[in-house]
Please model this.
Amino acid sequence: MQLYNASSSYYSMIARLALLEAGANFDDRRLDIHFKKEQLSGWYRQLNPKMTVPTLIAGSDIYSDSRDILNFAQSHAAYQWLDSDSSHETPIRALQDHFYAIQIEKITFAKAMLSIPPLRYVFPSLLKKIVKQLEIELATAPNKSAVTEKIKLNEARIAFFTQGTLRDKFDHELQSVTDFLVQLPKPEPMLLGKKLSSIDVITATLLTRIKMIGEYGLIKNYPEIDAWFQNFQQRPTFKNADMWLRFQPMRIFLKN
Model:
């Protein structure tokens, strides 16, 4: 089993943490998505035409979305996770749906651009270069629909970062995090009961990212969730999953 992922990638953290919590053995294969842009390489596109991370290879099966990997981990964990209890299926699916509706990349990059003004020019410029490269490749691309979707995605990102008031858009997107948190029950000791569930995995990843971008103050409004997260960080799996509680630019530069 091989997990292709990137150290700083939010969705890669979900995959790493989920697989570790499920007790799955896998080869942790890190990609350089910033400088080499290995996610755009030909060999990787054969695995994942969407050109995203993470991707899990499990036997003859390929999972190219973190939610699919999360569900794979849940199946691997079986009764050890609360997800195996059918009575929790509906609330777990609803919370997962809400979680995956959060536009975490917009939140992350908007906060960086608001904190470091020159990035307002750097990020859109980098995205425009990627779009230009993909447009050149489109004519000969074996999977034209995937390349077209990638172009549209990056164009939408450019529009978000360059049009309108960034602060207002950031605040609007950050509200979705609060809307998710208010739905979480009181931990007992895990979020949905005595056993760990996929909701613990995704919530831990979300709070990790909120802490990294310096917005953890909003979590303080939910002391029981805050206390749960402080305890969750002590789990060996959390430490081994390489969860980025702080931004680590030197690791990006060193491609680590």
In short: The beta strands are 2-5, 27-30, 55-58, 61-63.
